């Protein structure tokens, strides 16, 4: 990395220098606000599911849950680009390179504006095609279509917030994204209840509540970035595409985004297998998916903490400290995940009862929870190790490993297995099979590839 203008970061800063100090303390200080923020982010769709499940109906519940893969396909592609931006910014920040931090922030926001327009157009126009691809039943199709069209019409708010908070995380500031997200999540809860119960808007009201809340979080993060006096300040008149930095961002972000999008597209196909068992199974899977997302949060938050930790420390030239941080983060993720899984497995019926009172929906939801939770701890390895590799700029290996495991291997398993025995047990193992394969490959690659000799940013 060439540093054209090197200065020391100001002493008074909201950022976190992770190149010195206790590794455990730094990872906790970074990951805990991030975990809380991710918890509130999950409240967006979870509250949607709770409201429609209790106040609209089973078909609406199935609709909201079944479209998650479609939404995630575009959103996670963009999040991959934001991860690339975060890695680049964290490297420059770790090297105290103020000029390149500024250039990276301006380039990042220009990219966000471009994708906001692009994803709004693509998202709205592709709704009928994607719903048909998932073999969405007729009694769910219309509700799912309404929800998706409204959601994608306002998706720019989510993209702006995610990129803005990614900039803050790259310099170690997870507290402000948490504050902004808490406020917008609480607003989403209130608006859900107002639109659905008071105004009787049904599934459309849930979608409107979500996009309004997301625009509020976007405005908050933009306001902070434009008013801060720190080195990562965003100045609208300076917004431009620096080609050198854009190439660095895309070199990491595109493989990550492509992997996420392809994996989500694969999940759309998996959803088609679930849809074949009817609306009750779809609704039960939707309820499980919301619980599953909460279980993933600690390991995902630790993986993001490790990405920033490794990015800053390799930027500062301390590879050994980066490796210690990776193993420490992995151990912490495993312990926290186990502590979360045990009570969930025991109280699965009560958890499902929050989403629906329909016995058939609860039956399927409990089955998916208890079956999949037996294997979910192994995902700590793929979340944390992929985060470490992206932190040094190696985004291609995680892309290939995850595409192979979550797309090729998972689809091959489901195709072959369901042609032999097509029941819910066989389909339910589709996700754990991919998790096990992915984590095994990551452990092998991280141990033997010599990644520490090939820092790529």
Overview of the structural elements:
The chain has 457 residues and is mostly helical. It is built from 18 helices and no strands. It is 80% helix and 0% strand. The termini are close together. 54% of the residues are buried. The model is unreliable at 1-12 (pLDDT under 50).
In short:
By secondary structure, this protein is mostly helical.
Number of strands: 0
Radius of gyration: 21 Å
Strand content: under 5%
Helix content: over 70%
- Shape field: globular
- Count the helices. How many? 18
Blueprint of the fold:
Layout: H1 23-55, H2 58-66, H3 68-94, H4 98-125, H5 127-133, H6 138-153, H7 155-170, H8 175-198, H9 202-227, H10 243-275, H11 279-315, H12 319-346, H13 348-353, H14 359-372, H15 379-391, H16 396-420, H17 424-428, H18 430-448
Helix pairs in contact: 1-2, 1-8, 1-9, 1-11, 2-6, 2-11, 3-4, 3-7, 3-10, 3-11, 4-6, 4-7, 5-6, 6-9, 7-9, 8-9, 10-16, 11-12, 11-14, 11-15, 12-15, 15-18, 16-18
Record keyword descriptors for this entry.
single chain, 457 residues, mainly alpha, 18 helices, globular
């Amino acid at each position: 990395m060439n540093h054209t203008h090197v200065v020391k970061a100001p002493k008074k800063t909201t950022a976190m220098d992770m190149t010195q100090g206790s590794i455990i303390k730094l990872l906790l200080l970074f990951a805990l606000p991030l975990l809380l923020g991710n918890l509130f982010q999950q409240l967006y769709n979870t509250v949607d599911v709770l409201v429609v499940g209790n106040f609209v109906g089973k078909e609406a519940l199935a609709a909201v849950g079944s479209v998650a893969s479609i939404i995630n396909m575009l959103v996670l592609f963009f999040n991959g680009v934001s991860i690339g931006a975060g890695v680049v910014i964290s490297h420059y920040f770790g090297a105290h390179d103020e000029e390149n931090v500024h250039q990276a922030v301006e380039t990042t926001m220009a990219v966000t504006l471009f994708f906001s327009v692009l994803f709004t157009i693509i998202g709205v126009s592709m709704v009928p095609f994607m719903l048909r691809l998932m073999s969405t039943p007729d009694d769910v199709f219309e509700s799912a279509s309404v929800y998706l069209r409204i959601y994608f019409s306002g998706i720019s708010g989510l993209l702006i917030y995610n990129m803005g908070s990614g900039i803050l995380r790259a310099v170690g500031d997870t507290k402000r994204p948490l504050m902004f997200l808490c406020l917008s999540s609480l607003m989403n809860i209130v608006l859900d209840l107002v639109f659905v119960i008071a105004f009787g808007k049904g599934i459309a009201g849930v979608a409107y509540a979500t996009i309004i809340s997301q625009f509020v979080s976007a405005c908050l993060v933009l306001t902070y970035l434009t008013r801060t006096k720190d080195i990562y300040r965003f100045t609208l008149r300076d917004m431009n595409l620096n080609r050198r930095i854009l190439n660095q961002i895309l070199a990491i972000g595109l493989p990550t985004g492509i992997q996420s999008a392809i994996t989500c597209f694969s999940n759309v196909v998996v959803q088609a297998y679930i849809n074949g068992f009817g609306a009750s199974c779809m609704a039960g899977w939707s309820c499980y998916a919301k619980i599953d997302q909460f279980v993933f949060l600690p390991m995902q938050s630790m993986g993001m903490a490790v990405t920033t930790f490794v990015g800053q420390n390799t930027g500062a030239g301390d590879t050994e400290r980066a490796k210690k941080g990776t193993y420490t983060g992995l151990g912490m993720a495993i312990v926290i995940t186990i502590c979360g899984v045990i009570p969930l497995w025991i109280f699965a019926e009560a958890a499902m009862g929050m989403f629906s009172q329909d016995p058939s929906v609860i039956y399927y939801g409990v089955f998916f929870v208890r079956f999949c939770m037996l294997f979910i701890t192994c995902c700590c390895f793929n979340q944390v190790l992929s985060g470490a590799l992206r932190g040094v700029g190696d985004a291609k290996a995680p892309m290939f490993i995850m595409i192979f495991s979550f797309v090729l291997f998972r689809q091959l398993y489901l195709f072959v297995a369901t042609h032999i025995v097509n029941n819910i047990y066989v389909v339910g193992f589709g996700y754990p099979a991919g998790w096990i394969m992915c984590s095994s490959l990551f452990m092998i690659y991280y141990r033997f590839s010599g990644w520490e000799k090939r820092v790529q940013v």
